[in-house]
Amino acid sequence: MRLVLVLVAGAALAAPLPKDDGYRGIWYFNQPSGDQYVYKYSGGLGTYPHQQLPVAYYSKEANKTFFCYGGTAKGKNELLHMVSCYDHATGQVPRPRILLNKQTDDAHDNPVLTLDEAGHVWVFSNAHGTARPSYIHRGTRPYSVDEFERVLETNYSYAQPWHFPGKGFLLMHTRYQEKGRSLFWMTSPDGRKWDEPRLLARVALGHYQISGRHGARVGTVFNYHPTPVGLNARTNLYYLETADLGRTWRTADGRAVEPPLRETPNPALVRDYEAEKLLVYLKDLQFDAQGRPVSLYMTSRGYASGPSSDPHVWNTARWNGSRWEIRPVTTSDHNYDCGALYIEPGGIWRLIAPTEAGPQPYTTGGEMVMWLSRDQGHTWNKVRELTRNSGFNHTYARRPVNAHPDFYALWADGDTLKPSASSLYFTNREGARVWRLPVDMKGESQRPDRWP
After folding, report:
1. Sign of CA dihedral 397, 402, 405, 406
2. Which tens digits make up the pLDDT trace of 425-452?
3. What distances in angstroms separate CA 239 from CA 77, 218, 243, 294, one per listed residue?
4. Around Cβ 18, how many Cβ atoms within 10 Å?
5. In this structure, what are the phi and psi dihedrals at residue 308, rounded to the nearest 5 degrees?
6. Cis status of the peptide bond prior to 345, with omega within 30 of 0
7. pTM (predicted TM-score)
8. How far apart are CA 418 and CA 392, in angstroms?
9. Structurally, how many domains does the chain consist of?
10. Range of the domain at 315
């Protein structure tokens, strides 16, 4: 495989990176709707979007959960790429570090991160389309977010980096081309030299995808944007996986597939939702105890905010070894109600998502709720309301890699009808407590605030 040498700066951006005096998320909107719901989606979107991941990573060696988010300066709404960590030994967070100013207020440019086997934190800074650059930064010291070097400036969107000790990186991502979104992957042995991006799928106007890792395998679940409507008509459910960093791709039943996929009916198709006139909004991808994929997604009847798109049905699609089992979980009131799926030892499936209507119903997010299933998604029980009587809607609950029980999901809140401040929150595995990351810090480190 031919490797292409990319920009290697080899120098720290700052020594150390500047600190902010608190945790403040970016506010963002997309597509004004001209009705009482104001936007197609909007709010505090510091942990948005679902197709960029991971945003948090627990390291057992450091006993810290490292995380990044889209932040903003006090009194402004310009996107800062922020990186920090939660110290499980002390129960504190430091002042967050400012990696860069992305020169936009577009939360599509939010960052993601991963760790390598030596403990270096890698931050992948996205771009929404081709108007702005994307970056890759590497922490200069293991298990530290104090100082970074820039190793690549390029262009990609919706990055999903996966690191394999002794083998390197597999970067699942999207590239905007030909008036649409094409799914690509590229690999690197060290994060500095990357091969040419290779096309995985481009059907009609393109796709969104969510990938997940299980051992040596990376799976990806994706929908597609049909012509002529495109993005707002996203539909269908597809699945592919690779066990060798993209050298070969297979369906869930092991059939080899030669990329790129170009046709709507293809071997990766899980369910033809286009024929059912339903839209598909991807949420998460996990693997069960047998290593079989489980996709979490929502179906609805329309893209617009409001009851005209009801019902908004949360579903799981589980490969049982011979076929896909598709089952409903619950309903909520907006296409961009985004949550995280956990499959735990003992067969417990856990969902953390904003499935209760919040103070601004039929807009992005709501009140965070915890659901449990003990029968592989056949039935679900609502076990706890994590937030209630909130001032703003909560959304985009995100699952850390190797999630520690004390820092199990990270999300943000915000006013969905007009620009507002946005706070960041996390909860533990049992949902017994919710904490807000400190908005105004007087010291160098601080315990998060219990909420409410």
Report:
1. negative
2. 999 999 999 999 999 999 999 999 999 8
3. 37, 11, 14, 10
4. 11
5. -65, -20
6. no
7. 0.96
8. 11
9. 1
10. 3-451
